[in-house]
Structures are given as structure tokens and as C-alpha cells.
Amino acid sequence: MDQGLAAFFASMAALLGALIGGGFSARAARIGGEKTVEAARRQVKDQAQAESERWLLQARHDAYQVILGAIDAYADALILPTTEAEAAETAKQRFRSAELRVKVVGPETVRNAAHELSLTFISVQRVLDDGQPIESWMASRIEERHSAFVDAVTAVYAWEPEAARDVP
How far apart are CA 1 and CA 56, in angstroms? Predict the structure, then answer.
């Protein structure tokens, strides 16, 4: 009978060991599954973030191309005395439309530079509307604001952290 009890206790110990081992295996499987799900979530989130950043960079690039072309056309329309009123108005509207695109997608530094350029264009336009001639300092001011805008745009594309420190 002692052998029967010994066999019984041995089988109970083995069963208990199997249950404990199975419990740890199940817990480990659950933890592994949770980590896999979390890694998948993180990957999806990171991928969405990267895609969003790519979209924003492309939207900015497109807006900058449009406004840079509009700046040249509007500056020429204001500064060159041979420009017809209709061409100047078309250039002004094109610039305003491009500036709005920049306001939507540009970081603050670029938006501010575009706004400063816009204010300069407005002040020069007012001089022309009053029938006054364009003075050389006005053309210089437009060029300064244009250069400041180009510098702000360049900082967006800069790889050096110092140059792009304020760009989100």
C-alpha cells in the first residue's frame, strides 16, 4: 500500500507541476501576445506619423514653389513701370492665394516671413494706388523681405538641427 500511496503522491506532484508549468506558459504566452500587439500598435502609429510628416513636407514644398513664383511675378508687376493694371492685379491675387497656402501648411517662421513680405507688397501697392512713383528703397525692401522668406523656407529643409531649431 505504501507503494500505491507513493505512486499517487508522485502523480499528484507531477500533475501539480504540470498545472503550475502550464499556468506559467499561458501567462508567458499572454505577455508575449500583449507585447506583440503593442509593438504592432507602435509600428502603425510610427508609420502614420511618418506618412503625416511626408505629406506635410510635400504640401509645404508645393506651397513654397507656388509662392516663390508668385513673389517674382508680383514684385515685377509692382516695380516695372510698364506693367498693365490687369497683370498687376492677377499677380497680386496669385500671391495672396499662394500666401494662404503657406499660412495653412507652413511653420510659424515661414508664415511670419510671408506675412512681412505681404505687408511690404501692400505698402508699395498703396504708393502706386496713390499715383506716386516707386522709390528705390521700396524695391530694396521687397528684396529684403523676399530674401528673409527664402531663408525661412531654407531652414525648413535644413538638416542641421541648429538651422531648423524652431521648425516643427
Answer: 81
